Fold this sequence. Notes:
With 289 residues, the chain is α/β, with parallel strands linked by helices. Helices cover 38% and strands 18% of the residues. It starts with 5 loop residues before the first helix and ends in a 7-residue tail after the last helix.
Amino acid sequence: MNLSDINTVRGVLSRHGFRFSKSLGQNFLVNPEVCPRMARECGAGPGVGVLEVGPGIGVLTAELAKRAEKVVSVELDERLLPVLAETLAEYSNVTVIHGDIMKLDLHRLIRDEFPGMQVAVCANLPYYITSPVIMRLLEERLPVRSVTVMVQKEAADRLCAEPGSRACGAVSAAVRYFARPKVLFGVGRSSFVPPPNVDSAVIQLEVRTEPEIRVKEEKNFFALVKAAFGQRRKTVCNAVSAGLSMKKEQVASALERAEIAPNARAEQLTMRQFAQLCGELFDTKEEIR
């Protein structure tokens, strides 16, 4: 079954009475070059298990199944289950789980489904839930080596932005704390049915075995980063003071001790500077390394 052929796709969906759901961000990939490249880039191969989020009609799933030891795809839309049963019928190494990736016990899923395997995540993520899914995969500290996902191009630029650059935001810093992000390649809007109003890109997050920097209380670090970027037109001093309900004098003093310019803005700070400022603000600097 050629799932990159629009007539084949329409025939399958018609047989199952399936209609696209805008609320679930359903745009199915039909460019025949994208999924094979994603499957290669994610490292699918013998001895490797792949966790997929939102398989759609199974275009990427099939390419992963051709290469990986096993593929487990989590699909939220129950209407797609009979569609996937047809499109993936020839692949005995694929398991489709009906569920919400934001609610499943992912540690248990990986332990039960991929015993003795290296694990990678590969997915064409719905745009409306890109950041929450990525952050859950990273914050859970799952035993996965990488996360390779297709996202909206604007989101890709933001997720992979270098600290200290204008494109950097709170989610950029959070992603870099857990992983080494990079943009792999772009994907035009005409690659989808129905075509979205934006272009996409495939990014890869190489999961760190240890964070780039270490702080005593991660919740304080992420609260600081969120506050600093929450009002990015303001200086770090003013934004953090407002966001964390701290006196400006307290924040200014911490900035001075961390050797950060008093008029610095969030996008100008490196990860280490954020860690140093966090240590000064919460008196945990001795834990930073």
